[in-house]
Amino acid sequence: MSLIANIQLDALVFVFRGISKLNDKNAINKGFGEIAESEASSRDHQTGEREFSSGGYQRSIKITLPNISSDADLKFLRIYIAPFDSKKGFVKVALMKHPYTKSDYKFVNRFLKYLFKYCKTNYLSAQHIKIKKVDVAIDRKVFITNLWFNNPRTQVAMHVYGKSGELETIYLGNLRATLRIRIYNKAAQMKSKRHKGKIQHALLRVEFSIRPDCSIDELFDVIDIEAKLKKFAIYKAKAIREAGIFSDEVCSLIDYVGIKSILQSMNQSSRRKALKEMKPFRSNLISKEKLESNLESLRKQLKYLYKK
User: Contact, 13 vs 22, CB < 8 A?
Assistant: First the structure.
């Protein structure tokens, strides 16, 4: 069960703070209008329009990033401006659904510079960017059914099954929680028309969806991925079956409802015994050294969002 894709920022949503002057708002609207009228903005797949309102924002545009490989999924960013109420940031930017590279961040930076080019204030700086949501993704070359997942501090857990009856997705945590974990069969998701026949191996994705509400410089100190990984227990299901810790009937039940539900149904003594017996079969997603290396790479990449 080797690690194949390390760690990536899978999605990022942030707002710009301090935009209150009318002349700056008018300047941003001007820059936004020019981008919306350019060939850079693409039609929205839901509305068919280049510009539309969404989520309480009066205007929004979708910009497709350059596609280096014909086999790769299209990457895009969305720029929102002019909210209907004062509780939202005047400018919100979302980079969604796909991992982004250094060149992608540079591309986004060019559009943000254009958006603010008529403003007197330099909003494209770390002090004006406030992170609202970030998804951190870790990939492993393993089937989702070969691992059992448990997060004792998370009260809400849900298993989602596909049409074939096989487990496809596990959610840990409430939808509106500060932290929510999503574990799913990435290979099955990628077997679309674009990737048909090209994904032959197992691929498991673990996404930590975090709402840090902090500055971009504070991001990695706030989310503390290493601490969250320590609280997140992963067990090798096949090895536990072979060790005979649980009966075949209980193992089948764990496959369906999850190890967390089974442990919670036990009395305290039985639960402690089971956890002790399972401890040798825990699996790590990523080593501390590899995690630190990848986080440092992400820090450097994010700086391209506001680098002059």
Answer: no
